[in-house]
Design goal:
The chain has about 350 residues and is an alpha/beta fold. The chain contains six helices and 29 strands. The chain has helices at about 35-45, 55-65, 80-90, 115-125, 190-200, 220-235, and strands at about 1-5, 25-30, 30, 50-55, 75, 100-105, 110, 130-135, 140-145, 150-155, 170-175, 210, 215, 255-260, 265, 270-275, 280, 285-295, 300, 305, 310, 315, 320, 325-330, 335, 340, 345, 350, 355-360.
């Protein structure tokens, strides 16, 4: 079976963490986000994956290669994918697609049963099925209304709060027949939700919806990235590749720790959880609360990091305080006794002098 992974976007809501890495390569428990989706597909028998690349594509080539290491054959569709939109980029990969295929966003974390999704699609006999997740706040998503046969009646893209016609959101995962490609114009900027699906409804070509209750998170913002991290520790998001073992369920009882290789920690105080990459050095009496630290980071004694994400190759000096919601870009230096206020983004390659205070807007 074939699958297509959408991996061309810039991940602007995760800036500055996506300046030197595309969003699919964001580390999640020290593996790229896209690896989890790839392995989900391989598990149900997908043996050929076409990856639609764009922004910083070389990082993806370097890590995933031809797919041999992951038990799958990987082909890359290159070029102007960002400018072509989701459907337009898919059209460009038409020559690779021969039978029923899955399309998925590469940065989604989910426990969706892909096998059930494909079986549902084949039972319905249409050319398009979309996976639909139930969300509390539909205003961030494309919302779908179904009839009694699970046929899509209409869409509403990012409705205002309180005006959503349902709580079923487009999960960014589809099953298509090759016939869908005949509906997409060649060489045009064409989007699934804004162009293709409305056109299908207008022409009365059925689209089916597959609602599911399993975990789903599109990891679009620092807050949802941290929430997904906590959900692994809490057992809500089950990733076979990540073994938190006895840490599971300890998030509220004193703090769970997950580190990469060659880390040095001197009696850290962990609250909630802390995920560390490789080669992270943590000094004495450092407090880390519900935070993720990427690789090659030094945190000196007495520092406090609360609900933050720290990029690669960062130095955090003695007594530094980083408040909730902040993001420190790669290669930055925060000198001793400085304070980074809540929800502040420190750009890559920055230097904050000692005893400085960076306040939010």
């Amino acid at each position: 079976m074939q699958a297509v992974l959408l991996a061309g976007g810039k991940g602007t809501r995760l800036l500055p963490l996506t300046i030197y890495r595309p969003k699919p390569m964001m580390p999640f428990f020290n593996k790229p986000l896209m690896e989890y989706m790839l392995r989900n597909l391989v598990e149900i028998g997908v043996d050929e994956v076409i990856i639609l690349v764009g922004y910083l594509k070389e990082k993806i080539f370097e890590y995933f290669g031809n797919g041999e290491e992951f038990g799958v054959e990987i082909t890359y569709s290159n070029g102007e994918n960002i400018k072509l939109g989701t459907a337009g980029a898919l059209k460009k990969a038409e020559k690779f697609l021969e039978d029923t295929f899955i399309v998925a966003s590469s940065d989604v974390l989910t426990n969706l049963n892909f096998k059930e999704l494909v079986e549902f699609h084949k039972r319905k006999g249409g050319i398009a099925t979309m996976a639909l997740t139930k969300v509390e706040d539909p205003s961030h998503y494309g919302v779908v209304v179904l009839d009694e046969d699970n046929k899509v009646l209409y869409f509403k893209e990012k409705p205002r709060p309180g005006e959503a016609p349902s709580n079923l959101a487009n999960a960014g995962i589809y099953v298509f027949e090759p016939d869908i490609l005949d509906l997409i114009p060649k060489g045009e900027n064409y989007d699934f939700s804004l162009n293709l699906f409305p056109k299908m409804l207008e022409e009365e070509i059925p689209i089916y919806g597959f609602p599911f209750d399993e975990y789903w998170n599109d990891v679009g913002r620092p807050s949802t990235y941290l929430q997904a991290t906590e959900d692994v520790f809490a057992g809500k998001l089950k990733l076979p590749q990540v073994n938190v073992g006895s840490l599971k369920g300890n998030v509220e009882k004193g703090g769970s720790l997950f580190t990469g290789s060659r880390c040095i920690l001197r009696k850290p105080n962990i609250v909630g959880f802390a995920v560390l990459g490789d080669n992270v050095e943590v000094g004495r009496d450092v407090k880390i609360e519900r935070s993720v630290i990427f690789s090659n980071v030094v945190i000196e004694e007495g520092a406090e990091i609360r609900e933050a994400i720290i990029g690669e190759n960062v130095y955090i000096g003695k007594g530094v305080v980083i408040e909730a919601g902040s993001v420190i870009g790669d290669n930055s230096i925060i000198e001793e006794f400085s304070k980074i206020g809540a929800n502040v983004k420190i750009w890559t390659d920055s230097r904050v002098g000692k005893e400085s205070v960076i306040l939010p807007d």
